[in-house]
Please model this.
Amino acid sequence: MTTRTEFNSSELSRNSAEVFGAAEDHPVRVTRRNAETLILMTERDSDAQQKLFEFAADLIAVTTDDNGTLTERMTDRFSWMHALSEEDREACAKELVDSARASFATKQPYLAAATLTTWKETATAIAAGLGQEPVEWLEDEIPLDRP
Model:
């Protein structure tokens, strides 16, 4: 089954369920006679694009600055990175740039957003003191009843 990515505006009234269903899966083009084509998408997709643009602006500012290393510049821009170790800051900086490049190349903002969120949540957990206590592993297997 092929997924439609374009509808004409009359289909919005005649077959709105199909148009809206397609827009829930991916942005769709709605063509109009004698008017500019519109894009219909979910608010989630629109928010993801907006966050990617904001992230892109931050990355451009960081990469065009020439004071300090990339990791230092990114730590200045994303202050939550201060909670990470020096080694993790370097890994974070590299992963953020790599995931942003992949997101831009594939037009999929979720990869960059997921990487940014993962590193930020990791830094937040470290700052809260999580992960500093030794882990106690259970030695004995605990039998469970079948659900």
Q: What stands out?
A: Residues 62 and 73 are 6 Å apart (CA to CA). Residues 43-64 form the longest helix (22 residues). The first strand starts at residue 6 and ends at 8.
